[in-house]
Protein 1
Amino acid sequence: MNFDDTPQEAAFRAEARQWIGANAPKEFEAELSKSSLGRIRLQKAEIVDVGKAWQKKKAEAGWACLHWRRNMAGVARRRSRR
């Protein structure tokens, strides 16, 4: 099995990393990195609300539901780009 990226796959990964780096909600990063399994609350925000906002932001930019078909509100990315 070949795990080396093609140039197109490498470009896609770089694009994904750049988008996440620029858009991920960093204000929760430290707190979430210390969380344990089963923790469902943040100190200053509701985790479900934070998750919904993050999912919405990804969807608006075309980074959510990468494996769904377009007619099902997905992006329909190729298997190697999911």
Protein 2
Amino acid sequence: MDALQVNGRKIFFFGALGGLLFGYDTGVISGAILFITDDFGLSPFMQGAVVAGLLLGAMLGAAFAGPMSDRLGRRRLIMIAAVTFTVGALGAAAAPSAGALVAARFVIGLAVGSAALVVPLYLSEIAPTEIRGAIGSLNQMMIVVGILAAFIVNAILASSGDWRLMLGLAAVPSVILFVGMFSMPETPRFLVKTGEEKEAREVLDEVTADDASGAETPERKIEEIRDVEEQEEGGALRLLRESWVRPALVVAIGLAVFQQLIGINTIIYYTPTTLTSVGFGPESAIYANLVIGVLNVALTVVAIRIIDRVGRKPMLLFGLVGMVTSLTVLGLASELLAKPDSASDPAAIVTLICLAGFIVSFAATWGPVVWVMLPEVLPLSVRGTAMGVAVFLHWGANFLVSQTFPVMLDSWGPGPVFLGYAFIGVLAFLFVKAVVPETKGRSLEEIEADLHINDRDGETATAGAGRFERSTASEEERAPSSTRR
């Protein structure tokens, strides 16, 4: 990575900056909701609505962002998302009522859903193969930095309870993103797709290391992209119905949905709410949440350093073991220990430790790995549209969790709720073990070529082997057509 040119680093930074906005706007509500509830007198249902308004917008944003990214390009869509972020943040800060706040959060959600789709797409398509995992993880890194920034702002403003300023500050990085993307290039894969090979070659020159191998030279990469394009003539929606695309779509949807159903955003959105229910005061809950945010960033840094060495699938499995363990202990402690009266009671301490254990396990594995793998497993010609389907369902699952959590917590208590999320984690483990392929060290074109090979030979690339590629597939079969004479 040290051999990358300076301009390449700039491209990766601004490409990932959309993740920071995603993180800030999703994280800031965790502290703000405590004060919004007091100001507007929100019921548990309306608390969920304020949080989930963003998620409904994100579902719609993701649904339209996929086809739009295939038509307009990845770069233009990031710029549109930046403008939408700004409008939504200022609207939320000025909201005169709970209904207006839900509407403003919906607008922010349109941008969040678009960014969640297009930022990992942009980074994956522009990064060299040997560091694609690390570069793709920059999106998650910026997300958790944004979440931590939100937690810091919440802690600074906790004494004043100024939730309007908490929400409005999101406009600052969104303006920086919009200005920065003016000087950023489109991805080489999109440029080749639209017949702009000269521009694609210039972008690849910027981001390719000086000592890159022959397989990673700009000419060779353009050749591979062109070969894949020739195999996939036809509309994206038609291609989504093709049998060779199905295994990739199943993996993408499964990873996107399970990432939410295991309960991560009960931590991101509701840690202060959970902690106040076990004896913490509002301000101490927000300060404890800051510790959660620091752990989130620290373990994401660890993930970025190991993802291209350890591999995607082992990290997913290891992370689920940690998350299921944390949720199970939390659920059992909530049921078996006496209800706490203060933050120093055993149940309160166990709750904080288990929440921290969950976030450590998630941040080091599922947080970055899922956003790296979604664009990796999906074919180029349908990548935007197919990611739109996966991310739409991702936000649907997020909405379901976020809208129901405060109601379930109020009705059932924390024990049954967290044990339920632990059971979903077990299902996710079985899914990853059986279906998810390993993509470490393979170019996007190689992964896609294997989908064609398996379909051509009438093979199924899911269950059992857990790989798209056949174990018997030769390197010659996966080579670009121009190298086979």
Protein 3
Amino acid sequence: MDRYGFGHRWAYWDAPRNAYHGLSRDRVEALYAEADGIINLCGATKLREEHLLCPVRIMIDTDPVYEQIKYAKGDYRPAPTLMLILTFFTYGENLGTPRLPGAGVRHSLASDPAADRSQALA
């Protein structure tokens, strides 16, 4: 990891053995608490108690609208931990519009034609 500039800036949690490699469990939990936000790409990570230390939890749902329609209708049964996500982003261009209303859904830069991409990396 040193070769790529990560040195002591990485962690891996071996779930079956409940063992941390790289950073310690305490340091990882401290980073969750200090983080500006945690991004869960496509809901692939099941949120655990330590993730809730971060007050901003974002899910970027990349599924082409199938899951977003369920969320817009309030159907979270397929993934109960999604109730712990505070902000949803989607590639679904019609979700959250008058054509397909959805509360609390924001468009990703990839799908929002009006997005100001000049600020995306600022």
Protein 4
Amino acid sequence: MPIVYEQPLNERMRTFLRLEFLYTQASITASRPTLGVRARRLRALLEILAITARGDSRSEVLKELERHVNVLKEYQTKTGSTPAASSP
């Protein structure tokens, strides 16, 4: 069941939610080869490009990604696991 948000509190969160929605839409339509689905996928990808082309959005996304990478690295060092050790 998808997570439903009543009303995001700020523009940053609305942008991230929109990017998540568009990415999901583009991913789902990737496996369906019909013309209408291709058009929807292209529209979603172009909208992602338009959002990320804005300088403020791009810097916000990069900051957030860096924050998540740092959190994951910190978790990895605390648990002592390596990517190779965690895969079966």
